[in-house]
Structures are given as structure tokens and as C-alpha cells.
Design brief:
This protein is an alpha+beta fold and 879 residues long. The protein has 14 helices and 46 strands. The two termini are 50 Å apart.
Length: 879
């Protein structure tokens, strides 16, 4: 009864009409997070964070609250709960409840289609990373180190993954299923139905990740084959309604369980968002504070350029991983034969996991045209393809559409000719029952040439492999997300093999498969951390991160041999052998220069800088952990990277960053000055010195350049002839970062008004919207923004009518045509909201209106109007 009285009093305070109560309600809005429109959220579901001092028993109060159902409680990683509410329940009631610190709507997560192409296998990727040397020379295999994998489950019956579950001596000793097979964000009636074990025979992502960490051979050898593993299944099976699904609350429960099981390392090959305040990032940060290393994927939006790194990898204390392509590829092949010759073609893995491209006996090969005469096959195919494999061109329509037309014509398989030298991604639904693979254009031409000479057949044995070198081996993968994060911190931290990785897969789906992504690079680093922890079990979380980062190998730009920018590479390519063999620690592991405008100006570094110079100083500490020998800095170099700009010379966005070859001759290179560089550092002692970084004077500030490089300290221990490089990357913006505009400059396509078919409306003045005639307004986000306001303004009176639906949102992140999120879009139908939380809806009266966009610039004050970028659209009509 007492609880009911508290709730009644709270309700009265929230809905009362007095001015003081209205102010109180406005303040509650600041406790309720509002995601931008492009974020998919679970309806009426929230993550509720309690104040740190609030006991976990506080959750009992919410169990008794009308209209609220408590889902999960978090104790080990996060002080809070997840809840779902009735449709009519006002979430501000929860925000105002005693002890509530903050609330987030629950975000959905889905596993995107993996990039399927060539395949890489052991030992090729283990050489350059030092893994092979560590295992063979040092005998370190991850023994007695526990790694928790929060993913889609695992086929633990796989012969190279132990073929066991929680039996004595089994590699799998921990784990649980939190989601079941049928949960889907696209099906409102789906429910969580966890299975007794986290078995995965429908997805494959977690099984692939597991093999990278600890597969025991002979086909695939993991980085840490003797590690003890736990699988915490948080992704469902893909289904007819869409790809595998999960959500924040489920993922957090998986991490919570891994912490409860006292994992040493947790692998998170997933992500979304750009901010360290994202709930998953917050949970990961809390987890690292308990001495558990979190290794997370930086993201796969690198083709969108700068600012594409994703949460939770941006969480404080989390080790963020980018990807390089494998050096050699173990590729699948098929054989084509006709009366004249026999040859092979290299094929991708099947895009349809449930149907492998396997033809033990030869079947006819055809190159059909659709009824419009096109090899693209984007319309019906009238030819009879019964029993044949069809070769089609890539483009103009989806793989599903092509496969459906080919399947309807009777074909038993489809080969898509890829005209680009990039791996393709495709998601096929349950309607496609035939195997679909891709080949490069050279093989497509060979097949068509063979067909033109007469009847041709194709055969393909399961896992029939051929080894070839990769032209992009060791280079940053095209998809690997770039830094910086929303506050100009350097990301990723380290790179590992993630492109074209051949690993274990559920036995029902073929046992092995190639996949590419930072999802594959992340478990590689998780395995490497296990090797380091076995070798040096006393290391703290921060020390592990410092050592893994500082002993990485800086990468060079292909063709120019110039250092790559830290926003692409962090410290460089993982070298776990050096991490183990080195007996030093260097901190901080990276120097992020958040705003050059805040640097000292006109100070005296004693090097004759002009009065206009902008510079900052940092303290760097080298600690010698050797118990007997001193260490010396044999050499120090400043490896200056090419500066990057996210803008073309005409002001439009450059998704592939524009580069400037930094040179001391024209002042376009940053300068580094080191004072008090120490001499020999005695055993178990440390030395601290100052590093001054001077921003380039010769770069045009209007072109918005980001400069950077690596400080490389070559350390040599007493009585040893070899040296080990320790790297500290640095990067910053050449100007005042608080003046950067979050909203992308106008392009040929955006910002724009569009109809519901995404067709642009050329003349907005002729646009008339209503509840029955909706339209869309969309624009692109170039830089993450802490706060975005999108409002409807009466063009006659210039008064604000209200926010558009989802028009008041926190923590937007970069959008781009190649990114997971293409743009920020808003529905126009006359509906507006008069409150920040988008709870009080009304209909704008008929008239002439325009849209006002305000986006908070980096490091801006949300209460200062001058800190916002502002944009006004052309006028349109509301009926």
C-alpha cells in the first residue's frame, strides 16, 4: 500500500498544472534518452539505470508497478533493469522514480550479411601477427584463460570445436542461451524461448568466431586453442521475416552472465551507435572496471570514411579492433568442362547457408537472358533451366530477385558474376532453395566463353580448396571502420586479420566457411589477449590494452610506403609475440588531440615557433618491467602520416578521405619535440618525459584536415642485440573542432523531400502533405552530434509548431550511402510534438511551413544557441 501511495504522489507531481511541476517534468525529459529516427527500438521497452548507491533490491519496486513488467536485472555489470510497459504508460513515471539515474529505449540489433568471397586458413594469418611464433617457440596456447563469447551460439558438436559441452576436459565449460531460435525484431508476436544450451545450427556467426579463437585443427587452428570458452547466445536464427535479431537488454544479459562466470576476456563481435554513453558501451566500461578485458569490433562502415567507428568499441577501457585482409586465401573451386577442355573457377562461399554449392556429379551450365534480353536477370526467364546452374550478371536488382527468377525457371544453382574486385554481401530469405555463389568477372567470362563453344558442365566438391596469395594481404580492409569517435579520440586501437577468414561453421551448414568483417578480427585479438594473459597473468586491464596497442606494427600506405593515419589503423597490426617478449609498458597508449583551438598559443617551447603556432604537450611514461636489465631508447622517430579530410575540394563529403602528403617544406606536417628523453631506465623503474605536438601551419583550416602520425620508440635491453618497437599514435584536427558542422553539406541528392517510394520531390513548393499524403524529409549526418532538433516552423509567422516525430534526439551518428544507416529521415504528415520526449502529439493547422534543423557541434553547450549548426528547408504546404 505504501508503494501505491508513492506512485500516486509521483503521478500527481508529473501531471500537475503548476509551473513548478512543469519544470520538474521538463527536467525528467533529460533522464529519458531519445534516439534519432534511424535507430530501431523495441516498442515500450527501456533500459533503466539506477544511481550507484541504490541497492539491487530496488528493482522489487518496479515489479509491483502497474503497467510495468521487469525483464532482466543487471547486478554484475550495471546497476539497473530492463522493463517493458503498456502502450499507454508514460515512461517519465519511471524517470521520476526514486533512484533512477537514466533511461534508454531498448535498441534492436541484427547480424548483417557477412561479406562472402575468398577464404583464408591457418597458418597464413598467424605468421605476421606473431601467433605462430608464440605457439611454436614459447608454447603458449591460452591455457587456463577463460574467454566469454557473446554471440549467436556455437555448434559445439563440431569436431574442431571439441565435440562436447561442459564435460570434463571440454573446451566449453560455460554459457547459456538467452534468446532461442525464433525471436525476431520484425515479428511483433515473437517471444524469447531460450534453449537448454547455446547450440547454433542455423546462424554460424558465433561458430565462426569461436573457431578463430580456439579451433583445434587440423583444418582451422585458432589463436588460443587451449583456452576455456563460454558461449552466451544473444542472437536468434535468421528467418523468413529477416536476419538474426537481438536487442540491448538481451546482449547486456549475455555480458552479465559472462561476468558472473568470471570470464577473463569477453568478445563482442557486434556494434551500433557512436557514443560512449550508449548503454552497451556503459555496460562494457563497468565490466572493465572489474578486471575483465572487453574486446569489441570497431565496425564495418569504413567505406563511409571518417567517424564511422561504432559502440560498444568506443566505451572507455574497451579494446577496439579494426581489420586487415588475410595474406593468403584458401579458396573454394568448381570445375567446368566441355568437349574441348576442362578448367576450374574460384567461387565464393554460398550466400544461402542452408544450401551449399555442391555438385558431386557434373550438371549443365547455362548463361540465360531474361525476357528483356538482359544477362542481369531482373525480369522473368522463359527459358527452361531445369537441372542447370545459371550464370547471371551482378547489378540492377537484388540477389533475391535474380535467384527467384532463376529458381522459377527450374535452375538448381546460380552464379553471380561480380564486376568489382570486392567481396559481395547478400542476404537470401527462405524462399530461395537453390545455392547462390559469386565469381569475379574473369571467371564469369571464362564460363561464358566455354558455353559459347558448346555444351558445358560444372561440378563442385564440398570444401574443394585451392591456395592463392591475396593482392590486398596485410592492408586495412575496405570495410573496416575509421575513427575518430564523436569526441575525436583515436579509433580503432589495433588491427588484426578479419578479411577472408576461413573458419569453423555449423556442421549442418557445411562445417567451414569464409567470412569477412571486424567481427572476425575481434576474436583474433581476444585470442591474442589470452596468450598474453597466460604469459603474464598479473597484468591489469589498462596494462593489457597498453601492451597490445604499443607493440603493434604501424602500417604503410600501399604504393607510397607512407605511414597510414591512426584514424584508419590505430597503433597498427597486432604482434602478440612482441607483446609477450617485450618487458616495457608505455603510457598513455595514444595521444588524442581533441581540439587544436585549445592548444597553447605563442608559448615558448625553446624551438623558435612563430606566435601563431598551436601546440600541446603530453607526458609519456616508459616503464621497464624487466627484473634485472636496464632498457634504453635506441632510437625515436616521428612517423608522419598523410593528413585526411572528409571533404572534397568542392565542399561535398569525401567518403574515401582526401589525403595531403604531409611535408615539412610547405608546413603541412605536424612537428614533434621531445624534451628530457631519458637515458637507460633501470630494471623495474620508469621514466617520464614531455612530448610537444605542433599542429601544421601550412594546411588550409577551411579544408578541415585531420593530421596524425606515430611516435615510435625502439627499445633495447641491456646485453641484448635485438630491439622491440613501441608505438604511440597521435592525431588531431587542424583547427577549431567546435566549429565543425554535423550536418553534411548539400549534395546532388540530400537534403531532400521524398515521397514514400524514396523518389525525390523536385519542387517542394508544390508539395502538400497531410495525414493521408505523407512525405519524407531526409539529410545526411557527416559528424556525430550530441543533440539534434528537427522542427516544423510556420513560414508566415516564423513560429515553431513543434518537433517532427523523432525530431528531438540525442547522440546521432554518421550516415552515408554505404553505411548501415543511409540518412536521417523524418515523416511529414502534419503531426508535431510540443515536448522534447515526443509524447504530446498534435496536428499542425493548414498552411505554409518549412523545416528547421539544429545540430549541436562537437563539444558544444546544448543551452547555447551559437553552438548549433542551423539549416532551413524550402517551404511546403500542410493541408
Amino acid at each position: 500500500m505504501k508503494l501505491l501511495c508513492i506512485q500516486s504522489a509521483l503521478f500527481a507531481a508529473l501531471v500537475g498544472a503548476s509551473a513548478s511541476n512543469l519544470v520538474s517534468r521538463d527536467r525528467l525529459h533529460e533522464k529519458l534518452h531519445k534516439y534519432p529516427s534511424h535507430v530501431q527500438v523495441k516498442p515500450h521497452s527501456y533500459i533503466v539505470q539506477f544511481e550507484d548507491h541504490i541497492p539491487s533490491s530496488h528493482a522489487d519496486n518496479f515489479h509491483a508497478m502497474d503497467g510495468v513488467q521487469v525483464g532482466h536485472q543487471y547486478v554484475h555489470t550495471f546497476n539497473g533493469i530492463s522493463v517493458s510497459t503498456s502502450e499507454s504508460f508514460d515512461p517519465l513515471h519511471i524517470a521520476g522514480f526514486h533512484g533512477v539515474k537514466y533511461m534508454w529505449p531498448v535498441k534492436y540489433h541484427s547480424l548483417s550479411a557477412a561479406r562472402s568471397g575468398s577464404n583464408g586458413a591457418y597458418p597464413f594469418q598467424h605468421g605476421p601477427t606473431g601467433v605462430e611464433k608464440t605457439i611454436k617457440e614459447l608454447g603458449i596456447t591460452g591455457k587456463n584463460v577463460k574467454i566469454g563469447i557473446v554471440d549467436s551460439g556455437v555448434d559445439y558438436t563440431h569436431p574442431e570445436l571439441g565435440n562436447c559441452w561442459k564435460t570434463e576436459g571440454c573446451m566449453w565449460q560455460y554459457g547459456a542461451d538467452f534468446v532461442g531460435d525464433n525471436y525476431s525484431q520484425y515479428d511483433p508476436d515473437s517471444v524469447l524461448e531460450p534453449n537448454p544450451t547455446p547450440m547454433d545450427q542455423c546462424n554460424g556467426h558465433g561458430t565462426h568466431v569461436s573457431g578463430i579463437i580456439a579451433a583445434q585443427g587440423p583444418t582451422v587452428r585458432g589463436v588460443a586453442p587451449d583456452a576455456t570458452l563460454g558461449m552466451y547466445r544473444i542472437f536468434s536464427c535468421p528467418g523468413a521475416s529477416g536476419p538474426s535479431s537481438s536487442s540491448d537488454d538481451i546482449i547486456m544479459k549475455g555480458v552479465e552472465s559472462a561476468v558472473k562466470d568470471k570470464m577473463d576476456i569477453i568478445n563482442l563481435s557486434l556494434g551500433g551507435g557512436s557514443w560512449a554513453e550508449d548503454p552497451l558501451a556503459v555496460v562494457c566500461t563497468h565490466t572493465t572496471m572489474q578486471g575483465i578485458t572487453i574486446v569489441a569490433a570497431a565496425g564495418n562502415d569504413g567505406e563511409g570514411g571518417l567517424f564511422t567507428v561504432r559502440s560498444p568499441s568506443v566505451g572507455e577501457g574497451v579494446l577496439a579492433v579494426g581489420s586487415v585482409d588475410n595474406w593468403n586465401m584458401t579458396q573454394l573451386k568448381a570445375t567446368i568442362t566441355n568437349s574441348e577442355a576442362s578448367d576450374f573457377v574460384i567461387i565464393s562461399s554460398s550466400f544461402n547457408d542452408t544450401v551449399r554449392f555442391v555438385f558431386d556429379s557434373p550438371v549443365p551450365l547455362a548463361a540465360p537472358l531474361d525476357d528483356s534480353g538482359s544477362a542481369l536477370v531482373c525480369t522473368k526467364v522463359s527459358d527452361n533451366l531445369s537441372g542447370k546452374v545459371a550464370v547471371v550478371d551482378c547489378g540492377s536488382c537484388s540477389f533475391i530477385e535474380k535467384a527467384q527468377f532463376i529458381q522459377d525457371a527450374g535452375a538448381v544453382g546460380m552464379i553471380v558474376v561480380n564486376t568489382e574486385a570486392e567481396s559481395l554481401s547478400a542476404m537470401l530469405d527462405g524462399s530461395i532453395a537453390i545455392p547462390v555463389v559469386s565469381v569475379l568477372s574473369e571467371y564469369g567470362k571464362a564460363m561464358r566463353d566455354a558455353i559459347s563453344r558448346g555444351p558445358t558442365q560444372i561440378s563442385a566438391k564440398q570444401n574443394d580448396l585451392i591456395v592463392t596469395p591475396s593482392e590486398t594481404g596485410g592492408q586495412v580492409s575496405s570495410y573496416s571502420s575509421h575513427g575518430p569517435d564523436a569526441e575525436l579520440n583515436i579509433f580503432p586501437h589495433v588491427l588484426a586479420p578479419g578479411g577472408d577468414i576461413y573458419s569453423t561453421y555449423p556442421t549442418k551448414l557445411g562445417s567451414y566457411k569464409s567470412e569477412s568483417g571486424t567481427s572476425m578480427a575481434t576474436p583474433y585479438v581476444a585470442g591474442a589477449v589470452a596468450l598474453l594473459k597466460q604469459a603474464r597473468p598479473g597484468l591489469t586491464i589498462s596494462q593489457i590494452g597498453e601492451i597490445i596497442s604499443s607493440t603493434a606494427q604501424p602500417l604503410l600506405e600501399p604504393g607510397t610506403n607512407k605511414p597510414l593515419h591512426p584514424y584508419k589503423t590505430g597503433s597498427g597490426l597486432l604482434n602478440v609475440y612482441n607483446a609477450i617478449q617485450g618487458r616495457a609498458r608505455i603510457s598513455p597508449p595514444r595521444l588524442s588531440i581533441n581540439s587544436t583551438s585549445l592548444l597553447s598559443s605563442g608559448g615558448d617551447l625553446g624551438v623558435g615557433l612563430p606566435s601563431s603556432a598551436r601546440w600541446t604537450t603530453s607526458k609519456v611514461t616508459i616503464e621497464n618491467t624487466d627484473s634485472a636489465r636496464s632498457v634504453s631508447i635506441a632510437s625515436f622517430t616521428n612517423n608522419i602520416a598523410e593528413s585526411l579530410s572528409m571533404y572534397n575540394t568542392n565542399g561535398t563529403i569525401a567518403y574515401t578521405p582526401r589525403t595531403h602528403a604531409s611535408s615539412a617544406y610547405d608546413g603541412s606536417a605536424p612537428s614533434v619535440y621531445v624534451s628530457d628523453l631519458p637515458g637507460p631506465i633501470a630494471a623495474e623503474k620508469s621514466a617520464t618525459f614531455s612530448v610537444a605536438i605542433v599542429a601544421p601551419e601550412g594546411l588550409e583550416e577551411s579544408e578541415k584536415w585531420f593530421y596524425g602520425g606515430q611516435l615510435v620508440f625502439k627499445l633495447q635491453w641491456e646485453q641484448e642485440s635485438t630491439t622491440i618497437d613501441y608505438t604511440v599514435p597521435y592525431a588531431g584536427f587542424n583547427g577549431d573542432s567546435s566549429k565543425l558542422d554535423p550536418m553534411a553539406p548539400p549534395s546532388s541528392e540530400l537534403p531532400a523531400f521524398m515521397d514514400y517510394e524514396n523518389n525525390p520531390i523536385a519542387d517542394p513548393s508544390k508539395l502538400v502533405v497531410s495525414a493521408k499524403n505523407e512525405a519524407i524529409f531526409a539529410f545526411e549526418v557527416a559528424i556525430p552530434s550530441r543533440l539534434a532538433k528537427v522542427q516544423l516552423v510556420d513560414s508566415t509567422t516564423n513560429k515553431v509548431a513543434g518537433y517532427l516525430p523523432d525530431g528531438y534526439s540525442y547522440d546521432t551518428y554518421k550516415t552515408c550511402p554505404m553505411c548501415a544507416i543511409v540518412d536521417l529521415s523524418f515523416v511529414l504528415n502534419g503531426t508535431v510534438y510540443t515536448d522534447d520526449a515526443n509524447l504530446n502529439a498534435s496536428q499542425a493547422p493548414a498552411g505554409k511551413y518549412h523545416i528547421s534543423v539544429e545540430m549541436l557541434r562537437p563539444f558544444g553547450d546544448k543551452d547555447n544557441s551559437n553552438d548549433y549548426q542551423k539549416f532551413s528547408s524550402p517551404d511546403f504546404q500542410i493541408a
